[in-house]
């Protein structure tokens, strides 16, 4: 057995180097005179059940060993082109960030538990000891299954397994006013009052690690039948290759002449911080309260959600930027309205929206699989939902809804924007969800799955929680809430 002791870090939705507790601890360990690991191996796995990986098949392989990554109700690709590209860019950016501090990133495809087991077996055959497997905890049925699979594989290999608190949210789990998830109030306002004042709620961020342990001398390759390209462009190509351009639509939306996307962003920690700085220096954080319900343009809302969803930036990093601006601690934003004058209605509104993300994530923890059930958190069986699988006319209605040809201009514009750009505004999302569920009476999960496919900023808890909320089966104190898209 060699003297090497490898620590494996499995990344999922914590694609950042700064404010990363696992990297912070790993860097701290290296400053000690004796430390338990000699090498550090960060690994990102494109999970085969959540994103189609058949584009990574080697040229001499004909078919993937995994089922297609499609949604159960609508049969849509679970990760469409916009998010696939943003995700790949985010993975590549964290790879570059890790390389700058002496490490790197191994990229793999497959089922997460199986990939780890194969890594552990390969290291064992090479007489290299894996002394630990660390990963960040996530919410969600599949995510919990991954964690169980990883723990089982580590225990079978007699390797330490540690699950870390997910610190990308606004209020740290260890600072919540309750320990049992069942104690989460079913109304957001009640929860908000429990954690106020919001400006004092987050913990401080963790800095950028100065140096990490090196990669192992030899890293086992991706097992057949897949192969991992060496460039970002090739990885994006592999992710997009299996996805048909029309995504199953007979009459897909076409880009209008001279139209521009309201979400033309690239993924990654670097661009996430660039976006925050842009919002502060252009005064958009100060005016956010007044503009957030807009629908056109780049800066009416923060559009930080895609970076927050993948953990490229954390909510408490956003908060810290706001604090520095409000207190005039740094030159960033100097001369902008509100600089150095304390919290204003705009910055307060940003914090309010960040807390909503926390709340939906905690609701996922509380209700578990009920997030995906048509009865919702409320276990409401009073609705007579229409199912496209059972009725040809309903299938036609759903097709028109997806293609943006319902005849309602407000809804259609949103659906076309979503298909073409991977984005649509929060105000439109609420109207679209209400329209499908309340006006058309169609199984709301069809809409949630279509959003999962197309949104660049898809977030498990926020997407499914919001669809339940607007369908009337989630955490909404106003059960009869119906948006009127004609009056919008």
Assign an overall shape: globular
How much β-strand is present in the residues?
5-15%
User: What is the rounded Rg?
Assistant: 23 Å
Helix share bin: 40-55%
Oligomer: single chain
Helix run count: 16
Query: Ends: how far apart?
Result: 69 Å
How do the strands line up in the largest sheet? 3-2-1-4-5
Class by SSE composition:
alpha/beta
Order of helices and strands: EHEHEHEHEHHHHHHHHHHHH
**Sheet having the most strands:** 5 strands, parallel
User: Uncertain runs with pLDDT below 50, 5 residues or more?
Assistant: none
Q: If you had to describe this structure to a student in words, what would you say it looks like?
A:
This protein is an alpha/beta fold and 488 residues long. 40% of the residues lie in helices and 7% in strands. It contains 16 helices and five strands. The protein has helices at 21-30, 81-100, 112-125, 141-156, 188-195, 232-240, 269-281, 288-291, 305-309, 315-327, 345-367, 392-403, 409-421, 426-439, 444-454, 460-471; strands at 5-11, 39-47, 106-110, 129-136, 160-164. It has a five-stranded parallel beta sheet, with helices on both faces. β1 (5-11), α1 and β2 form a beta-alpha-beta unit. The longest helix has 23 residues, at 345-367. The protein is globular, with a radius of gyration of 23 Å. The model has no long low-confidence stretch (mean pLDDT 95).
């Amino acid at each position: 057995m060699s003297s090497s002791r490898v620590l494996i870090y499995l990344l999922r939705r914590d694609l950042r180097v700064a404010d990363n507790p696992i990297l912070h601890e790993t860097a701290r360990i290296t400053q000690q005179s004796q430390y338990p690991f000699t090498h550090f191996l960060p690994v990102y796995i494109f999970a085969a059940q959540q994103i189609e990986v058949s584009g990574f098949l080697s040229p001499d392989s004909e078919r993937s060993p995994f089922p297609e990554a499609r949604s159960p109700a609508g049969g849509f690709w679970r990760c469409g082109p916009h998010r696939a590209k943003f995700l790949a860019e985010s993975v590549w950016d964290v790879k570059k960030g890790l390389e700058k501090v002496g490490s790197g990133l191994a990229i793999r495809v497959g089922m997460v538990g199986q990939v780890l087991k194969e890594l552990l077996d390969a290291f064992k055959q090479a007489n290299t000891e894996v002394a630990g497997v660390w990963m960040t905890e996530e919410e969600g049925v599949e995510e919990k299954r991954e964690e169980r699979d990883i723990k089982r594989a580590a225990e079978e290999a007699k390797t330490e397994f540690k699950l870390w608190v997910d610190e990308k949210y606004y209020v740290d789990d260890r600072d919540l006013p309750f320990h049992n998830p069942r104690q989460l109030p079913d109304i957001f306002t009640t929860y908000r009052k429990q954690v106020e004042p919001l400006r004092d709620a987050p913990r401080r961020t963790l800095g950028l690690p100065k140096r990490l342990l090196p990669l192992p001398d030899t890293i086992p390759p991706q097992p057949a039948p897949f192969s991992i390209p060496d460039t970002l462009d090739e990885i994006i190509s592999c992710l997009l290759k299996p996805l048909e351009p029309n995504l199953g639509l007979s009459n897909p939306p076409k880009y209008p002449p001279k139209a521009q996307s309201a979400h033309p962003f690239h993924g990654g920690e670097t661009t996430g911080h660039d976006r925050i700085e842009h919002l502060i220096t252009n005064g958009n954080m100060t005016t956010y309260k007044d503009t957030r319900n807009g629908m056109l343009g780049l800066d009416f809302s923060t559009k930080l959600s895609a970076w927050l969803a993948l953990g490229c930036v954390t909510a408490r990093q956003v908060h810290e930027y706001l604090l520095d601006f409000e207190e005039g601690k740094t030159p960033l934003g100097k001369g902008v309205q509100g600089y150095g004058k304390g919290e204003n209605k705009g910055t307060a509104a940003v914090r309010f929206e960040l807390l909503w993300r926390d709340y939906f994530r905690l609701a996922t923890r509380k209700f578990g699989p009920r997030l995906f059930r048509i009865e919702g958190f409320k276990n409401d069986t009073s609705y007579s939902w229409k199912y496209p699988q059972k009725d040809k006319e309903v299938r036609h209605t759903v097709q028109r809804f997806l293609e943006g040809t319902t005849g309602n201009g407000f809804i259609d514009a949103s659906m076309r924007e979503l298909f073409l750009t991977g984005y649509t505004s929060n105000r439109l999302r609420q109207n679209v969800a209400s329209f499908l569920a309340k006006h058309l009476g169609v199984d709301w999960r069809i809409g949630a799955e279509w959003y999962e496919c197309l949104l660049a900023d898809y977030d498990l808890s926020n997407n499914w929680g919001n669809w339940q909320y607007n369908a009337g089966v989630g955490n909404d104190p106003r059960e009869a809430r119906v948006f009127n898209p004609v009056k919008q």
